[in-house]
Amino acid sequence: MSSLVLLWLVILGIMLLVYLGFPIFSKTKTQHSQMSEDIIEERRQTLFQERERSYAALAELDEDYEIGKLSETDYQELREGLLQETAHVIVQLEEESLSDVEAEIERFKQQRGT
Question: Which pTM value belongs to this model?
Answer without folding.
Answer: 0.58
